[in-house]
Amino acid sequence: MSDVEKGRTSQTQFVQHHHHTEPNVAPRPVKIANPAALGLFSFASTTFILSLYNVNAKNIHTPNVVVGMACFSGGLAQFLAGMWEFPRGNTFGATAFTSYGAFWMSYATILIPGSGILSAYTSVDELENALGIYLITWFVLTFLFLIGSLRRNIGLIALFSALSVTFLLLAIGAWSGNVSLNKAGGGFGILTAWIAYYVGLSDLLVKEESWFTLPVGVIPQARAY
After folding, report:
1. Section 15-20 average pLDDT
2. Pick from 224, 225, 203, 223: which is nearest to 213 by CA?
3. Is 211 exposed, middle or buried (0-12, 13-18, 19+ CB in 10 A)?
4. Which of 26, 109, 188, 194 has the greatest CB tally within 10 Å of its CB?
């Protein structure tokens, strides 16, 4: 056998050996847990605290203690819940959690003195008008989420309905300077928080791991023919 033939034979044997020894393993699928309970509990807790401040519970008029919650619980934790909803294919949950996570972080930024946002306004009326525009914008977005929830379940419909009223009352209260409207917005905010707690708990209590489950009023979907 010539040197050229020997070289070809050795090369063929190497390729065959490499082909048979290289493992052909499919990538293992990654299962992402349902982040809905995290997002809803984070939203509910932060909303509950701020809403209690809005109704002047325990004679509290300065809401700045909520900044930490707004940054890390209602903000960061809820934002991450939204990011985890994307690979699960839940566009509605991803958009809602990410949006309200961003809302809480933006609200916290307004209250942080170092941001210079509040100190930039020399007129109280101008500040209240600016806050009113900020709040009415979130009312519009929340109303859009309400429309998107109409074919999902009664729990989400109730949640976004109460939250829409909350933002609307707070916006009108900021524009008018009416303290009663601000307190009414706080009252609806408390209601919103408890609805969010309920819906979050219903997501947490799965059949395989819980003694009981909570109904959220699932709306039957139309069958495709």
Report:
1. 47
2. 203
3. exposed
4. 188
